[in-house]
Design goal:
Fumarate Reductase Cytochrome B subunit, 9 helices, elongated, binds protoporphyrin IX containing FE
Length: 221
């Protein structure tokens, strides 16, 4: 008998907004650095810092599918998942799959290193991250080097990330992109719906995260 698939909300609005604004800001950070528009670069970097703080808190108190405890599975589960990559089967995943969870952690981790090193970086001309003077010139120069190197890691990770989405489409016939846009996905009728938090809680967490960044920058400059 064919299983009945029904639309279900799996990604809340805050998580989807987080994702697409993050994509826009990473592009802005990259282009502004290349064009040497440094005030915009620092602003967009601090905005990414706000998003990362937001995502950390949302990963603890947000909707089920956004929570770290929901999507971080054992490395063995991730490997088992990857070994079945070529198997065409219906998509029954509520949120990130076991391998995707590690990808999310990796992306958030390298973006945090980029922000952390950027805060201490300098360009030897006019621009200094808000912590550059505090850490001293030698450490700031070294962290500027890390800032450059880590961006190469980000480029590689983003290419792999997009390739993974395409691979799921081609090999398994799973469309991961549409749910990240609409929030909805067709799942077997018997699937338990994940608990969704109110978007206003997301807004409150975002305002708190922005306040933390503003207070941080004010307190060090
Ligand atoms: C700068 C580029 C990008 C970065 C830094 C990035 C980062 C991320 C992060 C951190 C997540 C986890 C979302 C969460 O749980 O909060 C994610 C998920 C996702 N991203 Fe991206 N992303 C980028 C570009 C893209 C692009 C261009 C696409 C479209 C093809 C895309 C499609 C997706 C999808 C479909 C998911 C959900 C995957 C799943 O179902 O497990 N991303 N991305
Ligand atoms: C608070 C956050 C950030 C601050 C204060 C900051 C600061 C800086 C500074 C001072 C430089 C110049 C270094 C030099 O001339 O050698 C730089 C370069 C660069 N930053 Fe950032 N940054 C931040 C976040 C980011 C983020 C989030 C990204 C990307 C996701 C990024 C990507 C880059 C790149 C690619 C360069 C090198 C551009 C080039 O010369 O080729 N930065 N950043």
């Amino acid at each position: 008998m064919r299983q009945l698939f029904l639309p279900m909300r799996i990604w809340d609005l805050p998580t989807r907004l987080f994702h697409w604004v993050l994509v826009a800001l990473v592009l802005t950070s990259w282009i502004s650095a290349k064009l040497n528009v440094m005030p915009l670069h620092v602003l967009s970097g601090l905005s990414i810092m706000t998003l990362l703080i937001f995502r950390l808190i949302w990963g603890i108190i947000g909707s089920d599918t956004a929570r770290f405890t929901h999507f971080l599975k054992s490395p063995a589960a991730a490997i088992r998942h990857l070994l079945a990559l070529t198997r065409r089967e219906p998509d029954t995943e509520v949120g990130h799959n076991a391998a995707g969870g590690w990808m999310v952690l990796g992306l958030l981790g390298i973006l945090s290193v980029q922000v952390g090193s950027g805060l201490c970086a300098n360009d030897d001309v006019m621009t200094e991250g808000p912590l550059a003077l505090i850490v001293g010139k030698d450490l700031s120069d070294w962290l500027t080097h890390i800032h450059h190197l880590n961006f190469v890691l980000i480029e590689i990770a983003v290419v792999l990330h997009v390739l993974a989405i395409v691979t799921y489409r081609v090999l398994k016939g799973h469309n991961l992109l549409l749910p990240m846009i609409t929030g909805r996905k067709r799942l077997p009728g018997a699937t338990a719906a994940p608990r969704m938090m109110h978007p206003m809680l997301g807004l409150a967490v975002f305002v708190l995260s922005a306040a933390v960044v503003v207070l941080f920058v004010r307190s060090v400059s």
